[in-house]
Specification:
The complex is a heterodimer of chains A (about 140) and B (about 240). Chain A has helices at about 15-40, 45-65, 65-75, 80-130, 135-140. Chain A has a domain at about 15-110. In chain A, helix 2 (about 45-65) packs across helix 3, helix 3 packs across helix 4 and helix 4 (about 80-130) crosses helix 5. In chain A, about 80% of the residues lie in helices and about 0% in strands. With about 240 residues, chain B is of the alpha/beta class. Chain B has a single domain, classed as Alpha-Beta Complex (Spore Coat Polysaccharide Biosynthesis Protein SpsA, Chain A). Chain B has eight helices and seven strands. A seven-stranded mixed beta sheet of chain B has the order 3-2-1-4-6-5-7, with helices on both faces. In chain B, helix 2 links the parallel strand 2 (about 30-35) and strand 3. In chain B, helix 5 packs parallel to helix 7 (about 180-190). The chains are: A mainly alpha (about 140), B alpha/beta (about 240).
Chain lengths: ~140, ~240
Amino acid sequence: MSWLPFAADATQVHLTSQTRIVAAVIAIFFMLMILELIRRDRLQERYSVIWFIAGLGMLAGAAFPGLLELVADVMGVRDTNVALFSIVLLLLLGLALNFSVIMSRQAAQITRLAQERALEKAREQAAEERGNGGAASAERERA
Amino acid sequence: MRTLVFIPAWNEEDSVASVIADVRECLPDADLLVIDDGSTDATVARSRDAGALVASLPFNQGLGAALQTGYLYALREGYEACAHLDADGQHPPREVARLLEEILGDRADLVIGSRYRDPDAVAASDDYRPTFSRRIGTGVFRFFLTLATRQRFTDTTSGMRAANRRVMSLFSENYSPDFAEIESLQLAVREGLRVEEVPVRMLERAGGSSFLTPLRSAFFIFKGVVVLLVGQFRPRQHAEAER
């Protein structure tokens, strides 16, 4: 990476082969787990996309260590492992934000659903009172 | 003109029936709707016994969602004017009638009953007196809302309001579920609607207690300021174009 003007010097810490193998195995297991969750209807496809992207990213990082080292260089980090941690942290932040957005949308939907049901109930009550019209109001008069 | 008065109520079994009776007496021509915000006590039964129509939310959704339910009902059922007041007996229905007059005379789109507007009013013994933390909150909200809207507001959190159809259609789609009072004022002014404050008398609450503890007040104030700040950057819906 010496062509980058801000590249770290030759003392850059690389990922070991062992780290790469462990990461690749975890990534594969992770994606299998997601497939299994979808298969058992525990996870909807539309919410799984982001997790597959995360898994593929992990696999790519393990298969092509050059990618991570490039990122580490751009970030000005000498230790590739630190770069890896930073990326994962950012990814988790993004995921958490994504869930807050989904949650907000669903909260709005739940509220509207509750309101529609409440209005439906009120209309039912109104129709009922019109139905036995005079009787109910006469009863109230007597009471 | 067909008028709807709605009363958001959350566990107000002690006071809701007498509020309904008062509204009936002072506003005999208005239809009445109680919006039960997931009460776990006898609020629904007491309201029905008092002869009110009840819209019951299946679980507690917060004051904003309850009020929005009322605006939605008023809009869909074709009411020309609507008003709402609290179920705890703080808001005399006689004063609500005065707010509605402003709407019926088409002098404003949204009218707020302000307990602070008239400093010369002689306080009766049962009149509303704000607590210390309430006074701080009122001051902060007043300052920021006036800054945001360039219009003077004294009672930003008042739950006694009257509105016309323009406001109904705006609020039934855009109403913050948990910061109803302040954000709705900002929204209405931003949309170019005529918002007006009318001085009213408010009483000490008849039953129940305020949900505000000092720590909660501080959080409430902080949240309110954030909400107002964010609200300044929201896209406009152009409700005034329909005028």
